[in-house]
């Protein structure tokens, strides 16, 4: 793992993968074909890209029953406990509509309304992600979304992973479809004979899913354009090198483009972590993926001081940030940009991925500088409420009309003044 001495002025942010023109053209073709041909296009693309024929898109009750038979009771209990933790955390975010009344009779407020229908994309491919089901569906349910549609690419056997089906069934998701890729995004945005369109699409996927979400944005809302996973560990000399290395590798095994970075003022720790990463990588099942990730996107940055290390972390604005220092709470106040912050030795990043409760759908590629984790707020919209009394309008009509005329909008001014002109008819 590369070790580099830096100052806080060094920029560490990676660029967002925008895809190439060939990929974009392929996505546009898929979107247009699904829009035109519906279910037939979904089946054709599933056969082409996933090498499987799907007679029916909807996961049947029989498939759900079979999935439960594959998941043992202990694992089912863990899924249920994780779901409880996630729900308990997100319930605390719920915002209520509100209204205030002034002495002149003016009423102002905000109405919070859940979205009608949401599509959840659960990635497949190299791994199964029941945790993504929990993290995307539960906040939508807490927000009050009535219709939640889940899509996920099928395995070679034509089925979804048992854990994914069970996680969705535990949450009461009825619409679970065996379709992935850009074609699934098209189905959610435009609708087909089987899949009715939704208002918002959430959930991470590969570059084709990301590009498809970008293209349909505006017709529907999306959560974000998610990049590869990333972790930054901010550590001092009190950290254990083997534990820091293990945490870095926990993200590297996600994807060859995942980023794992250590920032520390301790050269001794940096050298020890580099050795540990090399040794632990040799024993991992996903060794080739990890090696590519560490080679291309892994780094250890050594600063002169902890203050410089903190500045570097804020420059990175990482998806996941672990603070493994002697007094992590003292540092928390100086952290400005991170999707999720894990404090202390026992708050390893996978704790947040699966079980603690906060959402693991987080801003990537430095977007934590202006974005937040997926939450209940993701699944609601807010309407302003304005109610003026006669007295309030009488007192303010001339001010409103003057403002309208300042902008050259005479009809705006007359609309307000019309309330106080006598009827000449």
TrEMBL record:
Entry-linked InterPro entries: Ald_DH/histidinol_DH (IPR016161), Histidinol_DH_CS (IPR001692), Histidinol_DH_monofunct (IPR022695), Hstdl_DH (IPR012131)
Catalytic activity from the UniProt record: L-histidinol + 2 NAD(+) + H2O = L-histidine + 2 NADH + 3 H(+)
GO terms of biological process kind: L-histidine biosynthetic process
Pathway: Amino-acid biosynthesis; L-histidine biosynthesis; L-histidine from 5-phospho-alpha-D-ribose 1-diphosphate: step 9/9
Statement: the UniProt record of this protein carries the keyword Metal-binding: yes
Domain of life: Bacteria
The enzyme's E.C. designation: 1.1.1.23
An example Gene Ontology molecular-function term: zinc ion binding
Enzyme class: oxidoreductase
Residues binding Zn(2+): 251, 254, 353, 412
CDD domains, per database record: Histidinol_dh
Cofactor binding comment, as recorded: Binds 1 zinc ion per subunit.
Any single Gene Ontology cellular-component annotation: cytosol
NCBIfam families noted in UniProt: hisD
Protein name stated in the entry: Histidinol dehydrogenase
Originating gene: hisD
